[in-house]
Amino acid sequence: MLPGMETPSPLAQLLQALEAGDLPAARLAAVALQRANAHTHQVAAEVLHELRQPLLGAKAYAQLLAEEGGSSGPLKLLLAQVERMEQIVSDFIRLASERPAPQQRQSLAAPIWAAAKVFSVNPDSARISLEVEAPEDLTILGNARLIEQLTLNLLNNARDAMAGRGRVKVRLAHEGASPVLYVADWGPGIPEELRERIFEPYVTANKRGTGLGLAVCRRIAHEHHAQISLVPPSTMHEVPPPATVFRVLFPPTDAP
């Protein structure tokens, strides 16, 4: 290579090798590309983790000011924006992480109520009517923090779909021996052309959404050997029926 010329990227080397029909060089370039991607993936995860720490500090400080009597519009807006940034960073971290989170047998209701509380105190949720049915006797083998994140993402998705105004319901129940979580909203519904792809990253029907929330929900569900899906509105047996219902079906409580 001549002095001053840059080394081609692993991707460029792979394309050049394939174009030349050089299979050994293509294999070497593919390995180099895989290593480069893994390194970039790890660096991104570490940067996001470091970014999340000051965000959590800012969030705690804003919440403290609010609890001490601050009720001004700018303070509420600050808290809402900090919570939104923290949620986005958390979503990126979950998608970038390759290590499963530790799990233990625990109540399913506790992280559901925790998510409902975080959702309710967010000023963006002020015009949302939230109903929660979460009996305490349902247990799963899981990670409470991730179940809270999954539930909060579904709640945020419902709020954004309704432009911040409307009714949302969370219900825990049984389907045979399996615990199941439902999150329903009475918004405009999901366009038919997006329903098959709604869990893919960056696919969203909401103007203010990142398209990561539901992808993270699918990732968390898979980590818990659960199934997440859109189900018919009639599933909730509500009058009038909701427009959108997400179901998360967990493994049977007696599963190993």
Summary tags:
about 260 residues, alpha+beta, Helix Hairpins, Heat Shock Protein 90, 2 domains, two-stranded antiparallel ribbon, 6 helices, 7 strands, about 50% helix, about 15% strand, disordered N terminus
How does this model look, in words?
With 256 residues, the protein is an alpha+beta fold. 48% of the residues lie in helices and 17% in strands. The chain folds into 2 domains: 10-96, Helix Hairpins, CATH 1.10.287.130; 104-249, Histidine kinase-like ATPase, C-terminal domain (Heat Shock Protein 90), CATH 3.30.565.10.
What can be said about this structure in brief?
This protein has helices spanning 10-20, 23-67, 73-96, 109-121, 144-161, 213-223; strands at 104-107, 128-133, 139-142, 166-175, 178-185, 227-231, 244-249. It is of the alpha+beta class.
Strand content bin:
15-25%
Number of strands: 7
Number of domains: 2
Uncertain residue segments: 1-5
Name the CATH homologous superfamily of the largest domain. Histidine kinase-like ATPase, C-terminal domain
Tell me which CATH architecture of the largest domain applies here.
2-Layer Sandwich
Radius of gyration: 22 Å
- Name the helix and strand elements from N-terminus to C-terminus, one letter apiece: HHHEHEEHEEHEE
The biggest beta sheet is recorded as:
5 strands, mixed
**CATH fold name of the largest domain:** Heat Shock Protein 90
| Number of DSSP helical runs | 6
